[in-house]
Amino acid sequence: MNMPEGFSRFIVLGAALMALPVAAQAQERPAVPGQPTPGIQVNRPGQPRDLGPRTLQAGTAAISGRVTVAETGLPIRRAQVRVMAPEARGSRNAMTDAEGRFTVDKLPAGRYTVMYTKAGFVQSQYGQMRPGQPGKAIELTEGQKVERVDAAMVRGSVISGRVFDEYGEPVVDARVQVMRHRWMNGRRRLANMGRIAVSNDRGEFRVWGLPAGEFYVSAVATDRQMFMDAATAANDASDSTGYAPTYYPGTAIAEEAQRVTLAAGQEVGGIDFQLVTTRTVRVSGMALLSDGRPMANANVMLFARAAIEGGMMSPQGGSTDASGGFIIPSVTPGEYVLQARVNPGGPRRLDVTETAAMPLNVGGEDVKNVMLVATRGARVSGRVTFDAAVPAGTFENLRVFFPPADNELMMMGGAGNGQVTAQGTFDVRGVFGKRRAGLGGLPAGWTLKAVRIGGADVIDTGYEFAKEDVTNVEFLVTNRVTSLSGAVNTDKDGPAADYVVLAFSTDEAAWQQGSRRLGVARPDQKGTYTFRSLPPGSYYVIALDAMPEEWGNPEVFERLKPDATRVTLGEGESEALNLTLRLLR
After folding, report:
1. Reported pTM
2. 61-153: which CATH number, 2.60.40.10, 3.50.50.60, 2.60.120.260, 1.10.3470.10?
3. Which residues in the chain show pLDDT less than 50?
């Protein structure tokens, strides 16, 4: 392929993107402390793609309760109650009446969690210790009626303020987000909490529905045109001064941000700050399809790396011209990921999505002659195998999926899942980069044991897909699942009223967020905990009075290890382990 003079060629496949640890099973996953609960939900690495709830079979069990305001005890009307059966990947919904009461009936026997949602309140789960942490499970037998599955919901806290420019004038339409520190992808980061506010004509913003805690506030000006075609951008005469993403109280450096502390239901106002000015530049170049043709009239997007890591996708960009050329104006200095993507069909007659991406560092000068060359990805085919007989129709409920191993790849999109045929085969196109492998729609009591590619099991390591087809992939499913359960007592040998049990592998290589070998369990209505389908191996297990904030941080595991009990789980084995409650230090 001939390249225009002055261009550097970048063919970006998964090898150029950061490879992160994987979790390959589509089954009940432990809740991650502090993940966003209000507003926009962001998928993160280590979490399987949501394949959608399945319809639960009719049963004879029921769950009922009442939802009230935590501060007053008054009923909450029209709160949504969602009863979920993670192992069956199904759910049922109900709405509270004028007295705050609800009933969800015709439930089959199984293990359930209950979620409560109402605008203006912090989303909660039945029995959770505090917002953002896992709730208690409810075990139902056929015909059983469990009552008083109640929730006292906390009114959401509020942060409000104003955003100004360097002249003290209000900044209109600034995007304001609330963030907090979380352990993500191997390090501590500021992560978006899921709520976004847009400043009004007075520069005012109000972010609501927040839980209690310590937060940081940032704002990004959006007065520039975020998306511009190449011809318009070439003639753009905008001022070369813009605004950097700014943290309260007025700094472009995240480490200098000042925290805002919220109590439950509290409104903190006066969070006023001025955006930091900076020089802006242009990013220009050319995008080509995998066969060398121009990627004409395609979208090109520029994602700030910090925004990707924090779960906040707010790109700027433009479209290519007939020759594949693009210009993105008004770019502030920083680290970015540049992406171009075209979908199948259209005048290009593509049969799969083609995507190109590259890391890009922007300084104080225009970035010119950038070359993006797309990849078609790999065609991945194979078979799902069960190690025992399964009922007819099982295969048709299954979907294989290949979720990205990191946020950068997740942002690029592309194909990643496919339906399994009645014969147990699958064929997925357009898979590229470092991916995990998972299986959705498994019947209760079954778990994904291995994913074999070229004779190697990649269920824990993931796999780097390039442009070559990958055939004979085997998803091996077993009903020889592990089980670990028991009771928790206090140091006075009485039953603990509430607790959280953590299980983490004795292999430090598995101490990664999203690993299959990390588990969180809460007591059911009988006061016992249960882990199901942990992979066979050796684990540390500990019962605590509260959930660690940075679950997934190896330093947390090191602190917990001396007080933990060691247990080994063999394939298909059920172990009983009673624990003594420890105080989180």
Report:
1. 0.76
2. 2.60.40.10
3. 1-53, 224-228
